[in-house]
Prior knowledge:
With 932 residues, the chain is an alpha/beta fold. Among the domains are: 136 residues, Winged helix-like DNA-binding domain superfamily/Winged helix DNA-binding domain (Arc Repressor Mutant, subunit A); 182 residues, P-loop containing nucleotide triphosphate hydrolases (Rossmann fold); 57 residues, no CATH class; 64 residues, Arc Repressor Mutant, subunit A (Orthogonal Bundle); 109 residues. Helices cover 62% and strands 7% of the residues. The chain contains 47 helices and 14 strands. The protein has a six-stranded parallel beta sheet, sandwiched between helices. A three-stranded mixed beta sheet has the order 1-2-3. A three-stranded mixed beta sheet has the order 5-4-6. Strand 10, helix 13 and strand 11 form a beta-alpha-beta unit. Helix 40 crosses helix 47 and helix 45 runs antiparallel to helix 46.
Amino acid sequence: MRLTAKERILLHLLECGRSEDKVEVSQDLSQEGVARGAGIELRHFAQFVRPLIQEGLVRERQAHVVGIRQRRKVYALTSSGRASALRLREQVATQVVQVRNGEAVPEGSIAQVLRGTGGRASLVRAVPEVEQTGALDLAEPRASAESGFVEYGRDAPRIRVFVGREKELAELLRERGGPRVVVVHGVAGIGKSALGAKACERFRGRRNLFWHRVRPWETSPTILASLGKFLEALDRPGLGEVLRQGQSASAAEVLRQDLPDTHAFLVFDDVHEASPEAMTTFRILMETVVDAPDVKVLLLTRRALPFYDVRAVAMDGLVQEIELGALRPEEVAALLAEGEHLGDLASLGRRLAGHPLSIELVRRYRSDLPKGVQYGRRFMEEAVYRDLPAAERATMRGASLYRVPVPLPALLCFPGASYEAFLALQDRSLIRPVGLERYEIHDTVRDFFGSILTVAERRSFGPRAVAQLRDLGDRALQSGDVVASIACLSNALSISEPPAERRALWESLGDANSRIGDLTAMATAYREALGLANDPGTTARLHRKLATALEDRGYMTAAMKEVDAGLAALEGLQDVELGWLNIVRARIVEENYDWGASERFAESARETFERFHDITGQALALLEAGLAASWTGSTSGDGEPLAEARFLAALGLAETIHDPILEARIHLAMATAVGYGSGDYEDGMKHFRAIESNPVAMADPKVGPALHTQRAWFVLRTKRDLVAAERDLSEARRMALRVHNAGALGTLTYQSAVIAGERGQYEEAGRLDENAGSALGRTGFGAFAADAYFSAGGFYLAAGDWEGYRRIASALLSPPLAPYTRNPLEKPIVHGALQVLLRGNVEDFEGAFASILHARDPFPAHSIGQSAGRWWGHLYYSIGLRALGREREAEDHRRRALEMARSAHNAQAVNYVESDYGGRIAKTLREHMKSA
């Protein structure tokens, strides 16, 4: 029994549609409520609900939602949709399922079971649970859910019996004083995981709990991403965000700020499996908890760990080592208390040297093992394997292929496996429950059964296990659990053999690693997939994915190499990847302000997407072409600005495919174009209001900050509303601080400098701009860093701070920023012109400005390029002329700058020209020219 996302939406609306026709409806009928109830991500909501609307099964309208001031889109079933949902409910409700309620596991129809819960459970939420686990669990929620504490750990084992270890447990549970990091080491099966699980059980409801099992294929970003999900659940999303941006180097600082005061107990199991690169994560963590006295870290390992030394244990007291040994005789007796022949089994326990796993495995078996059998391969053969029926052996052989916990259906997919065998293996402690309705076998047991798999069994069982793992990986990725997806895909790769299947797995693994910002692992995966690709389209797609990730992180040269490789792979073939490669190419050339090339590439992409009827691609291409046109000022034949026409066309397509994030991006672009074009305040603000009324877009981590940042600029430019701008900047800064976005904070500091300059606080404006340039330079935004430094230089001159100006001039000569002082744009030209003027070279000063003032304007009217900086050149030329004492000429150019600022509807520029900014700079220049 399986339900599609669309079927889950129908069932949810059937169950929650009681208020569908009222003026004010339940939150269950909003986009967020339907997505939550149907178990789909909000960002994917539109693609699932759109077909239902087109088929006439669901209707969409605007209505007031309980608890929300603004009207929102809400959803209800049509008469046809209700009939379909009723038929579906009848079909699903009669399915017979296993039911767990405590220890009992009876059977019954879903309808009967749900009636017995008194409305506590719903059909739409019960079905996915049955799909995943093969049964419906009616147990009450755990205490952690009721207490408000977060519990994160799908790999945490669920222990049935625990004895002894009182001293070790007391050390772990100590709340005050003592080491922050506890390392428990011991041989396989000695009970390390059980000790950690017991500590978590005792902390439940008193601490926030995190459990992560380290696996051989993991990287440092993978482990950190898992910890990031935990911190995100504690409303501290910074770690996950910096990782997604590919800034794993910032992880230590983010943890240092976000981990304190979480009152967390962090458990890492099987740390000995960590690669040398991944082991650095634990050094970072150890150094972080020095400043987090309320956080405890437990590391479970078979071997000594290399990331700390004796000093950390003996002198600093930061780390405590616990070696876990054999159980004592009385503890063995307690563990064997369920046996019928206690004396014989206790004797066997002593023979097995108090090894908990071996005792657990034989406590329900006979005790007549040959003398001399100790825990090891012979023990597994004599004590375990020889007593297993065929179905149980088949189940265990198949299960040995899994290195991650899996749901019940994955264990039953192998020939010869059965549910009865699964229950028997659980009873024998060979299969153990992990996390929420998932199962695994101990790695020692897994290694034994894996070693006896025949070639024929591997060929039979392998494809089934790979199919299960791929499905689990896809589901995990759709639900946002990227780390679990990486684990499943990596496990599948360790089994898979067919080249085509391995290529697909490597590509999926690259996609998943891209989601957590692990650029190295992503690139490795895509390169492996490229080595197995055997057709041009696949090769081009993989190069394009690499190019996209590189471009997104500012590696433009490397990104362009991947674009070129993708284009070469297609060799003139018509393929939709041509469109995507040209989209990336258009974004790359934007970095060098080559808007003409960007426009050509975007137009080429649009033509390709039209040929292949790719609506999303067409919308994106129109957006990129519109951005380019807004800079170059291209116009259509009838005089309508081409940029606006492209934006409107892109918006229409985005609305057709119900892509709210793309709609928001287009509205932001249109607001920017309005600000630089007509300056119509109301026309621009309607775009910001459209974004704010879009809950899906506002939930996106990029849209909200972009809205506040762009709107702050917009109100400054169009109305010079300093109060409104500061309000938006404050909110944007709060969001950026929350996710530790250094690049965004640098940009916001730059905007704060603009406001300080508007108020005539030139010294403060220069300091803010200098700080912004430094921050932006550290995060790789060279062009923006240079722009901030250029502005800082002007403010320092206006403040009469000559040392500040010289400091800025020196910074602009540094290798990372020097390329941006040679760009053919206004601020670099102005900076160079002032430098030669200060050296007394008037001819070169005038020659530099000739490229701005007398050469043919490269940007026509109605363009960002025209309105953004032409007035700036005239203003600074007038400043230089004033410093030279040529007042009449200076005034002519000042008036020209004012005319241009007004014609560009730029209130901020008008203020600069009319204020004492230019006069104060001219005074400083004149003084230093005289002294020179």
